[in-house]
Amino acid sequence: MKKTKPSKKTIPLLMLLLFSTLTLAYLPTPVAANPTEIEMLTFFAEPHEKLYWDQVIPKFQAEYPSITVKHTAIEFDALFDEIIRLHLLGQDPDIISVHGMWLPRFADYRDPIVSEAPSGPPLYIKEDIEWNYLPAAVRGSTYKGIIYGYPTEIDSHALVYNKTRIPVPPKTWDELKTMARANTQRDGSGAVYVTGFMPYINGNEEKRYEFMNLLWSNNGEFLDLSGELGDWGVPKAVFNSTQGVEALQLFDDLNENKHPGTGTYDPDILPDIYWQGWVDSRITMAIIPTWFNYIRDALGPRFFTDLGVAPIPIGPSMVAAGGTYPENSKCVTFNHLFSVTQRAANEGRAEAAWTFLKYINTPRPARYIPNTAVGDIPRGGDCSILGDYFIFDGILPSRNGDRLNGLTKELKHLSEDFWFKGFIDMMELYGRPDPAFIKSQEVQDKVGVMFERVASYNENPKTVADETAAEVNLILPAPGDANMDGIVDVKDGVLVVKDLDARPGDTNWNRGRADVVEDNWISGKDGGLIVYNFGRKGDP
């Protein structure tokens, strides 16, 4: 990314903004007037993660004795379903950890789970987020122009490789296949002992992301939510294109990496003991996200000598179109956020919940909480507690100051750490955000199964891609259904007419009603979609 030196005219403005930001960051946070208990639901379920928050919450409660925090942690794979289950029971926790792709569903105006980040006094939450976080993370925490929470972690993807096996990473898929085959080793029974390229097939999110990284790096597209690539105004899956089939074919071409008896990857290098596979140098290459820094703990000092981080190799369609490596490499970026629920707002606990979130997102001096069971919190000065936690856990934080001031477990600045620096570069140079829409989770589950059908069970890539695209098209949102009642009719047109004159601040502005083309502007285009799709049925 090209950086330019600010002109003399911009320097006073930048100083003013910096002063304002620092002033807001260090102002004492108001305390809720009445005793309040709030519950926070996260996926910070590992023992060391729970231990971290066991040090932080008592410190907060000592400074804010009128607020008690209950922390509930579950595995990430169960989080979405648990949030939905609790919401249906009317038992929403006050603070929830939200994947960015879930936000359109959780912010659905018919029955919202999350509430809008408040602006102005006493907490200045919206202003803090807008001024102090990566723009990509702010976008990922925004739906229909409304910010719904504090960005937490942000992730990109890269090709991680064992430098002791391949000193120079592959640039194209042909090179990847050649290197993978050359580095595959079998034991006496024919089972794979060392894998040249390891697909990560544990969980539909990572299966989908692995496919999308390759698809985008092969000049392909995933979905057409605008209708511009297919039938105008009708969202559709386009990943069953030539580029998408080639991405699936890559794994079919590497079928010799599978156990000859079962047709699946050798269980010894599946994710159950995935980290040990890296320790034993039995994995040569994998496409993985930033948060896989868990490998750091597994490898110890060898983490810094054995591993490299590189852009995703480009595919044959990208090469044929004149694309070059690494300029035309692409990787999926995604983020999480902390949101306060609508239930907390309705029942008077929102200010207490936002107070806690502001507390853990405020820059702190080094050793603000000293000598804890997980070390000093934070390790570096002017780093927030939440940012320090993510860096401690090997994950990239979203707050700008945390990236500048946070220190790793080895007390290195992030720019001195090959892993953090590598994934930051991937995000800034090659990153492309994951599309979010109301049925994101359902589409992900379909695509995850598609990927595994080819990568693990040797099914025909073209057939599987076409079947999955047809299934996805049945569940994509119906464009023009402005009131989201499952049918495009005259009532939707009335909403457009009503909202055409709306302005920022009006009740319906940008809340997903008449803005059916999702361009954050209510205009004649929205009416055009309704006319085009009048009478089309479909659950949004």
Reported by name, the CATH topology of the largest domain is: D-Maltodextrin-Binding Protein, domain 2
Count of strand segments: 19
Q: Count of DSSP helices?
A: 22
SSE-based structural type: alpha+beta
CATH architecture of the largest domain: 3-Layer(aba) Sandwich
Given as residue ranges, the uncertain stretches (5+ residues, pLDDT < 50) are 1-33, 259-272, 507-511, 535-540
Main sheet: strands, sense, barrel: 6 strands, mixed
Helicity, in percent? 25-40%
Mean pLDDT: 83
Question: In words, what does this structure look like?
Answer:
The chain is of the alpha+beta class. The chain has three domains: 15-148 and 334-431, Periplasmic binding protein-like II (D-Maltodextrin-Binding Protein, domain 2); 156-329 and 436-475, Periplasmic binding protein-like II (D-Maltodextrin-Binding Protein, domain 2, 3-Layer(aba) Sandwich), CATH 3.40.190; 478-540, Dockerin domain (Type 1 dockerin domain), CATH 1.10.1330.10. Helices cover 39% and strands 14% of the residues. It has 22 helices and 19 strands. The strands form seven sheets. Strands 1, 2, 3, 6, 14 and 19 form a six-stranded mixed beta sheet that branches. Strand 1 (36-42), helix 2 and strand 2 form a beta-alpha-beta unit. The radius of gyration is 24 Å and the shape is globular. 46% of the residues are buried.
Main attributes of the structure:
D-Maltodextrin-Binding Protein, domain 2; alpha+beta; disordered N terminus; 6-stranded mixed β-sheet; 540 residues; single chain; Type 1 dockerin domain
